Amino acid sequence: MSIKTAIYAALSPVAPTWPVVAKQGTEPPWLRYQGVAGVDTSNYDGDGMGATSGRIQVDAYALDYGTADRLSKEARAALYAYAGLTVGEITDNPDDYEEDTKLFCVSFDVTAWE
């Protein structure tokens, strides 16, 4: 299973979840994710296959900051609990408010391995 597929599988039970752009007309709260970096690392198993890691940004959107923050925490917990994903570190990104959509966003990056 790819990292992005595992991210979706972990997050989708928490809230409506979309890769890159939420479906137009989706009522908040919702989650969005996008790949921001990836690395193939060689190993010494002799099979020629490496381990793939990726850094994925996860954004929690809501009409108020408290809900966005709570959703972000629930998303983090879901990622750590999901058996199909090995989570490394999670780092915070700046919180945001989008004037045009009137939505608050609490964002973080997760580093994970397939």
Describe the secondary structure blueprint for this structure.
Blueprint: H1 3-11, E1 17-19, E2 30-42, E3 50-62, H2 65-81, E4 86-92, E5 96-98, E6 103-113
Parallel strand pairs: 1-2
Antiparallel strand pairs: 2-3, 3-6, 4-6, 5-6
Please give a quick description of this structure.
It contains two helices and six strands, in the order H-E-E-E-H-E-E-E. It has about 110 residues and is α+β, with helices and mostly antiparallel strands. Strands 1, 2, 3, 4, 5 and 6 form a six-stranded mixed beta sheet that branches.
What would CATH call the architecture? 2-Layer Sandwich
How far the N terminus sits from the C terminus, by CA atoms, comes to 7 Å
Quaternary arrangement of the chains shown? Answer: single chain
Secondary structure: number of strands: 6
Mean pLDDT: 90
CATH class: Alpha Beta
